[in-house]
Amino acid sequence: MAGTSVRVDAQTHQNVCQLAQVLSLTIGETVALAVKRLRQERMGIELRQELSDEERIWLEADLG
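Structure (tokenized):
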């Protein structure tokens, strides 16, 4: 797998390393899991927002 570096402060690196060890994952897997979780959380926040008038019209459209 090709990789790239991400600069983080020493405390964040230590936290990721500890979490990876607890979860029995690599550091890369742990970061990927954290990013996935944040994306899911953001998606949940967006889905809880009120629909716009345009979205409501689109959802209620008669497609038959």
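The chain has one domain: 10-59. Residues 10-59 form one domain.
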